[in-house]
Amino acid sequence: MSQIPFNKGDQVEVTRPGHGSTGPYYPATVLRPVFKDKAHMLVQHQTLTNPNADGSKTLTEIVELRNARPMPPKELYEFFKVGDDVDAYRDKGWSRGTVREILENSKYLVAFQGQEFQCQQFNLRLHRLKMLLDDALSKVECPLQHRSHHLPLPPSSRYLHFIILFSLPPRVSNFPMSQIPFNKGDQVEVTRPGHGSTGPYYPATVLRPVFKDKAHMLVQHQTLTNPNADGSKTLTEIVELRNARPMPPKELYEFFKVGDDVDAYRDKGWSRGTVREILENSKYLVAFQGQEFQCQQFNLRLHREWEDDSWVPVFQEEKTSPVKSRKLVLKIKCSNRTSGASFENGTVVEVSSDEEGYKGAWYTAKIIDHIGSDKFLVEYEHLVTDDGTELLREETCASYIRPCPPRLPPVAQFKVLQKVDTLYNDGWWEGTISKVLSGSKYVVYFSTTNEELEFKHSNLRPHQDWINGRWIHGYMVNKYGYDHKEFVDKRK
């Protein structure tokens, strides 16, 4: 009994008779390590359920010792290459297969018993061999180093022993510990194995700069999401250092010419391409891997290679002096007057439009970059692209941008004829209180569309105007050039 291979509570993997190393192997827990025949044990499965209990209880069964093995120790998350002999977790167990192809988003195409299926990286592990040391072991050709670690067993012994053969060649990093290229919190770009300079490169943040093997780090993606979390959480994964590079510094917004070697932002990453044609409205036709697509100017950048801890070609700022933060000055046009206001990239502002259907509305946005003398690239806080996957970015003239208005003391109740901003369809629309209702509700009149809508008190704020570089807030319409008669006439 001293040589029984399992104890009560041990974590094991169990296969069916005759399946051998191909599996599937199902995770289980030992309940009773040995029966009188010394060839069986009682286990409780962790993934298989009892078919006679409507699937509500896990399966408990007696298995042969020769069809069980210890649960392999967990190892560092790693990438696999084509041809790797792996175990893939599917149908509640681990089955042996071969990597056929490396796909995007940490997926692999795995071949198993004549079939191919896609598998997530975290559902793969290197296949390892379990060998039985019984009377048949003498017939198996084993390397001398494996035999020498075990004493020969008596011919009558029916107990089973296991050898787990690990064939993990050590990964060698190009960086000694004192020269690890990244620190926690660094902004980086990560590509997939084998993609090289063509990309795509995905923006990410370093969570843990190095593992014991000195060749990997843990990152959290900024654009890729975890496919197993319904797309609600960003993807966190371990990547090889050789597949990561620093995030290139932002450069002055520039125009491109036909033939330029560029990186284009599409499908949540930066991919290398070539400018084929200059289109209207700051758009370009870009060729990428035999395909052509239109790209906005702000989604392009000159292609650069990260070589010997520097960017090639160097940035314009690097040729003269260290990069300094640039302060942008917007010229805000309001009431036919121009006033200067200082903003830095990242400043939250409000943006309006003369486009039909949007007049009179201000949308919260963030300054992304400066384009030319009087245009800016902004990213809206609530407006999204047509496919609903990303926040909307667009070029906007300075005359349609203003700072966010300051917060005013809470208003207990708005009055008739008081000018207000109403939160409607993700924007603030200028209107006038035409009726006060019960239950903290109001009817608001909009002169731009000549219509009235009902709003809750919580969706209103006092109206303010940005004039000569300062906020002016009045409460009655006639303070802005209207009287009661004028207001009534407009509603007719």
UniProtKB/TrEMBL annotation:
<feature type="domain" description="Agenet">
    <location>
        <begin position="341"/>
        <end position="409"/>
    </location>
</feature>
<dbReference type="InterPro" id="IPR008395">
    <property type="entry name" value="Agenet-like_dom"/>
</dbReference>
<dbReference type="Pfam" id="PF05641">
    <property type="entry name" value="Agenet"/>
</dbReference>
<feature type="domain" description="Agenet">
    <location>
        <begin position="180"/>
        <end position="252"/>
    </location>
</feature>
<feature type="domain" description="Agenet">
    <location>
        <begin position="78"/>
        <end position="132"/>
    </location>
</feature>
<feature type="domain" description="Agenet">
    <location>
        <begin position="254"/>
        <end position="308"/>
    </location>
</feature>
<protein>
    <submittedName>
        <fullName>Uncharacterized protein LOC103323261</fullName>
    </submittedName>
</protein>
<feature type="region of interest" description="Disordered">
    <location>
        <begin position="1"/>
        <end position="23"/>
    </location>
</feature>
<feature type="domain" description="Agenet">
    <location>
        <begin position="412"/>
        <end position="468"/>
    </location>
</feature>
<dbReference type="InterPro" id="IPR014002">
    <property type="entry name" value="Agenet_dom_plant"/>
</dbReference>
<feature type="domain" description="Agenet">
    <location>
        <begin position="4"/>
        <end position="76"/>
    </location>
</feature>
